[in-house]
Amino acid sequence: MRILLGFLSGLLFGIGLIVAGMSNPAKVLNFLDLFGTFDPSLAFVMGCAAITAFIGYRLVWRRKRPLLLADFQIPTRQDIDGELVAGAALFGVGWGIGGFCPGPAWTALPLAAPGTMVFLPAMLIGMALATILKARKAALA
Amino acid sequence: MPLDTVTPFTPLASTLGGVMIGLSAVLVMALFGRIAGISGITTGALPMRRDDWDWRLAFIAGLIAAPLVVLAVTGSPVRQTVPGDLVAMALAGVLVGFGTVMGSGCTSGHGVCGLARLSPRSLVAVLTFVATAFVTVLVLRHIV
Q: Which residues span the membrane (chain A) (predicted)?
């Protein structure tokens, strides 16, 4: 049941990305090109997704626990630290170069464009590197 | 740059797609009690990392299946234009992977789920990555 519903949730997310146009790097890069071929569509995507989640989360949180796992695991940190800002800054540079963030990169896999086939493994390497660095830092602390 | 083509403004489709993404995030919270951030789901999908990795791997399989389902239902393949400079795409991939893990989230985890939680960390992250992405495109398309 966990696997089936996890799959269907991912499928809904992926179809949402495709319907929204966010799975197309050209459209993402045009959203980011304020002074060129600007296409504001993606502001609607993030805005409508966040508003939908804002309302839905509040309905879901009336329950004591989620349906399939023991507890809600929601981030509790409130501090703004250097890692948050530096990580987000690096991510933005990569997003601006490639037009892919992690979700659309996965959705693009079966379309098998050469750029995707390079981007996706490189992204996983970057994630592994940062995970190792974080674990090492936590071990030292 | 061949990618510099105009893409049409699609407010209705983008609103509909955004609502679908938001509903998926609500489903993940209702079913699993977790944030639907794709970078976190990706790093948490490895069996050795956590005990609840199975639904994350299935979620990623769902993401990958999406264009195939769209093709099967509509009969037309999903169209996209991916940058062809493979060296640039390798660099972009490493930056996106490293940055999202270091910064604890990406467009979905911070941009959708974090803003929906009214998290100050996520607001700072979104403003930061949108700003550096704007500057990167400005530099690459209009200055270099």
A: 41-61, 82-105, 111-133
